[in-house]
Design brief:
about 425 residues, alpha/beta, 8-stranded mixed sheet, 5-stranded parallel sheet, 15 helices
Length: about 425
C-alpha cells in the first residue's frame, strides 16, 4: 500500500516507520523543514524512542519511507492517510484548540484522492470525527464520505519511549462512520501492525471494531480519564493519611492485594500530553461529569500541597535556597508537557524561595530556555523537592545536596536509608525518615 502520515512527531514518526517496516510505501508530511530533512537523512529528530534510530535508518535507506513538507506530494494516490497532528487545550478555559488539526485537514482535503481511507489518531472529543472533520473534508475535497472516501477514528494508545512495543501489546481500536469504512480500517491496520499474544483478553489481541467513531473516541478518553480520576483518589487518600499518622503506601499495597482494587500511586503532579489533557476534552462534551472535574482539580492542587509540606517542615521559605529535582513530567522521559515542575517552581517563588532546577536529562542551556535557574549537584542548598522519579534520584544522597535540611520526595523515589540526618517527607506518610 501507499500510506501517508501527517505530522512526524513523537507518535507520527514511529507510526510511519512501523508502516514502512511492514513493507509499505510511506510518505510522511510535516510543516517543519528541519524534521523533514532529518527524516530523509535517516536521522531521528528526537532522542529516546526505543528502536527508532535503527528502523528509521533502515526504512529510509531502502526507499520505503520518505518525508516532505508538501501535501500535494504526499496525499494524492494514497490508499490510507493517518493524521497524528497535535490538539491543544486552553489551560484556562479547557477549550480544545483545533487550529493545527483544522489546517492539516484542509491541506489534506485539497489533495484527497477517491478511494482513500482517512484515519484520525489524535485524541478527540466525542463527536469530532463525524461532526467536524467529515463536513470539512467533504467541503474542501468535493468528495462524499462513505462513497468516495472513508473516514474513521483510531486512537493512538502508546507511550513515548516504547511506541513499537505498545503497538504490539495493545488492541488497535477503530470506529468508522460506516460499516464499509470500519472494514477497510480493520484491514489496513491488520496489514501495518503486528500483535503480541494476549491470552488475558477474552476478545484476543488485534484490531477491534467498536462500531462507531464516537465509541472509539470515548474509549480513548475513558481509559485516560480513568487514570486521572484514580490518581486523584490516591492523592485524596494520601492527604488524609498524612494528616492522620497513616502510611498510605502500605494502605494502597494492602488494598491492591485484592483483585478488584487497582489504586494508583499518589504524587506531586500529573503531567504529560495525555492524562492532564484528555479529561478536559471529556469535560468539554460532558460538563456535568462532577467526578472527573473533582479529580482534575485535586490533581492540579498537588504541587501547591507539596510545597506546603516543605514549608511546614522547614519554616519560612523566604530567601531559602530550594532545588526542584526533575523538570520532566515523569522519570526517564525528556518531556516537560504539563510537568509539575512549573507550578512547583511558581509556588516556591511565591513563598520567597530562591529556586533552581536539576534534571539529568537536560543541559543547563535547556533548563534556562524553559525559564529555570539550573542547579549543579554539589552546590549548597537548604531544601529540595523531588518532582520527577528519574532512576538517578534513587541513588541520591545528602552529600550531593550539601546543607540540605529537608527533602520532600514527591514520588517516593529516594532511598530513606541514604537520608539519615535529613528530614525526609513523602506524600502520604506522616513521619520523616
Amino acid at each position: 500500500m501507499r500510506v501517508s502520515v501527517v505530522a512526524l512527531g513523537k507518535i507520527g514518526l514511529p507510526l510511519a516507520v512501523q508502516f514502512a517496516a511492514k513493507g509499505h510505501q510511506v510518505v510522511g508530511v510535516d510543516i517543519n523543514p528541519k524534521t523533514v530533512e532529518q527524516v530523509n537523512a535517516g536521522q531521528e529528530p528526537f532522542p529516546g524512542e526505543a528502536h527508532l534510530a535503527e528502523l528509521l535508518a533502515e526504512t529510509v535507506a531502502d526507499g520505503r519511507l520518505r518525508a516532505t513538507t508538501d501535501y500535494a506530494d504526499a496525499i494524492p494516490g494514497s490508499d490510507a492517510v493517518v493524521l497524528v497532528v497535535p490538539l491543544f487545550v486552553d489551560e484556562n478555559t479547557g477549550e480544545p484548540e483545533f487550529g493545527w488539526m483544522e489546517s492539516a485537514t484542509r491541506s489534506l482535503a485539497e489533495h484527497l484522492s477517491p478511494g482513500t481511507l482517512v484515519s484520525y489518531e489524535t485524541t478527540l472529543p466525542v463527536g469530532t470525527t463525524r461532526n467536524r472533520w467529515k463536513p470539512l473534508l467533504e467541503e474542501v475535497s468535493g468528495l462524499t464520505e462513505g462513497q468516495d472516501f472513508h473516514l474513521v477514528f483510531s486512537p493512538e494508545r502508546v507511550l513515548t519511549g516504547r511506541v513499537f512495543a505498545d503497538l504490539r501489546k495493545y488492541p488497535k481500536l477503530v470506529g468508522g462512520l460506516s460499516e464499509e469504512g470500519a472494514k477497510r480500517a480493520t484491514a489496513f491496520y491488520e496489514a501495518v501492525l503486528d500483535f503480541d499474544e494476549r491470552p488475558d483478553l477474552e476478545r484476543g489481541n488485534g484490531v477491534w471494531d467498536l462500531g462507531s467513531a464516537e465509541a472509539a473516541e470515548l474509549a480513548k478518553l475513558a481509559e485516560t480519564t480513568y487514570r486521572d480520576v484514580n490518581i486523584g483518589l490516591a492523592n485524596q487518600f494520601a492527604r488524609f493519611a498524612g494528616q492522620n499518622g497513616i502510611d498510605v503506601h502500605q494502605v494502597i499495597e494492602a488494598s491492591n492485594s485484592q483483585p478488584y482494587s487497582h489504586i494508583h500511586r499518589p504524587g506531586i503532579a500529573v503531567g504529560g500530553h495525555c492524562i492532564p489533557v484528555y479529561p478536559r476534552l471529556y469535560l468539554w462534551t460532558d460538563p456535568e461529569a462532577t467526578v472527573v472535574r473533582a479529580a482534575r482539580e485535586a490533581n492540579l492542587g498537588m504541587p501547591e500541597y507539596t510545597v506546603g509540606l516543605l514549608e511546614g517542615a522547614y519554616g519560612d521559605l523566604t530567601g531559602a535556597k530550594v532545588v526542584v529535582l526533575g523538570a520532566a513530567y515523569r522519570g526517564g522521559v525528556k518531556e516537560t508537557a504539563f510537568s509539575g515542575v512549573f507550578p512547583a517552581v511558581e509556588a516556591l517563588k511565591a513563598r520567597g524561595a530562591e529556586v533552581s532546577v536539576h534534571d539529568p536529562l537536560y543541559a543547563d542551556e535547556e533548563l534556562q530556555q524553559l525559564g529555570f535557574t539550573p542547579y549543579a549537584l554539589g552546590t549548597p542548598v537548604d531544601a529540595a523537592v523531588l518532582q520527577a522519579d528519574h532512576p538517578e534520584y534513587a541513588q541520591l544522597t545528602p552529600a550531593e545536596l550539601p546543607g540540605v535540611q529537608v527533602l520532600v520526595d514527591g514520588r517516593d523515589r529516594t532511598d530513606p536509608a541514604r537520608w539519615a540526618g535529613v528530614r525526609r517527607i513523602v506524600i502520604g506518610r506522616s513521619v520523616s525518615q
